[in-house]
Design brief:
Elements: E1 4-9, E2 13-19, E3 30-35, H1 42-53, E4 59-64, E5 68-69, E6 72-74, E7 81-83, H2 84-90, E8 95-100, H3 101-108, E9 117-121, E10 131-136, E11 140-147, E12 152-156, H4 169-179, H5 196-205, H6 213-221, H7 225-233, H8 241-265, E13 270-273, H9 282-285, H10 289-295, H11 301-304, E14 309-312, H12 317-331
Length: 333
């Protein structure tokens, strides 16, 4: 039995799995998750995983959180460079492929069941219409799918690094604040796990919200400030205003950027919201601020009302997508 090693390679964590043609991309033979920053390279993590499983691996397929040029990828928020030929040689594989992680998520959508998706807006999908994926995680990923007459084909992008476009006076003030800190303010700077502390700091520095002393102490000791801010914001009436305002600005900006993406590719086949943040804050996503911001496109708002929007709940979608492409590669060799 030939075995594929597939991976979802992120700045925070790396998910690896072993797959076979017999089991398919939804049924890994083995799985493991690693903290990416604890390793010097993808090859090092894969070697440890393969040794631990005792498997004989022949092929590799990896979705990577960063731009891919040819056979080479750079992790945007991690000091790694991944080259498919280097990975193939180091792990003694017959062949290895590297793709953008949003590309692997896009391919993984075809493998999702109803239970893997939360319907935010049912819409009215056009058969074969373009589909868009936007995924706030450590960074902000964007991709899209087009129908080729037989199946959907995924196309990666680096849309998360396009300019942040404010839509109201508070967001304009946020942009001015961040221009004092960064040479370029991308939408990722305010619409991702790494961007949420930037919104929080803006509200504090501009004195738009008070930061309670007791919460400042908690946040200073928190190992993950983004997770702490978001979990506190969901704590109803006990949440400090600065946390709830941070969450509201994040959702408003995400809604606007999702609407931008929908208009750019005319995503009549639907929008899929990925990443690790949204499943944890679904109650807030459901309140309507995201959708209001998404639809706020003037004369084109009626078009957006018909676009279905779903939140991806399955955290393994990128791994499954990478496995799908890897297994298809195996079948041809």
């Amino acid at each position: 039995m030939r075995v594929l090693i597939a991976g979802d390679i992120g700045a925070t964590k790396t998910n690896l799995g072993l797959f076979s043609l017999e089991g398919g991309p939804r049924s890994p033979l083995e799985e493991a998750t690693y903290r990416s920053a604890d390793y010097a390279s993808l090859e090092e993590i894969c070697a440890e995983f393969i040794t631990a499983t005792g498997a004989e691996v022949s092929f590799g397929s990896f979705g990577v959180a960063g731009p891919v040029s040819g056979k080479r990828a750079t992790i945007t928020n991690l000091p790694w460079v991944i080259d498919s030929d280097t990975v193939r040689s180091a792990l003694s594989l017959a062949k290895a492929v590297v793709m953008n992680d949003l590309e692997s998520i896009a391919y993984g959508i075809a493998l999702l069941d109803d239970k893997d998706l939360h319907v935010l807006s049912p819409g009215d999908a056009h058969p074969g219409g373009p589909r868009a994926i936007i995924a706030p995680g450590t960074g902000l990923g964007e991709a899209y799918l087009t129908w080729d007459g037989f199946r959907y084909r995924a196309h990666p992008s680096e849309g998360g690094h396009a300019d942040f476009a404010p839509t109201n006076v508070h967001e304009l003030a946020l942009l001015r604040n961040l221009l004092g800190r960064f040479d370029h303010v991308s939408v990722e700077r305010v619409c991702s796990g790494s961007g949420i502390p930037n919104i929080y700091s803006f509200l504090k520095e501009e004195r738009l919200c008070d930061e309670p002393a007791w919460y400042a102490e908690q946040l200073a000791e928190a190992p993950d400030k983004t997770a702490h801010i978001l979990s506190t914001a969901l704590d109803g009436q006990h949440a400090p205003e600065i946390c709830t305002r941070t969450l509201e600005m994040f959702l408003s900006i995400l809604g606007a950027e999702t609407g931008n993406l929908a208009l750019k590719i005319l995503a009549t086949g639907g929008i899929y919201l990925g990443g690790g943040i949204l499943p944890r804050i679904l109650p807030a996503v459901n309140r309507g601020l995201f959708l209001d911001s998404f639809l706020n496109k003037g004369r084109l708002s009626p078009i957006l009302k018909h676009i279905p929007i779903r939140v991806i709940l399955n955290p393994k979608v990128a791994l499954m997508g990478a496995a799908l492409i890897g297994l298809e590669m195996m079948e041809t060799i």
